[in-house]
Amino acid sequence: MAYRLIIFDFDGTLADSADWFRGIFNEVARRYGFRGVSAEELESLRGQDHRALLATLGVPMWKLPFIAAHVRKLAARDAHRIPLFPGVEAMLEQLQARGLTLAVVSSNAEANIRRVLGPVASERIRHYACGAGLFSKRAKFRKVLKAAGVRAHEALSVGDEVRDIEAAAAEGIATAAVTWGYATEALLRSRAPTVVLTRIEELLQAVAA
Question: CB-based contacts of 77: which residues, under 8 Å, 6+ apart?
Answer without folding.
Answer: none
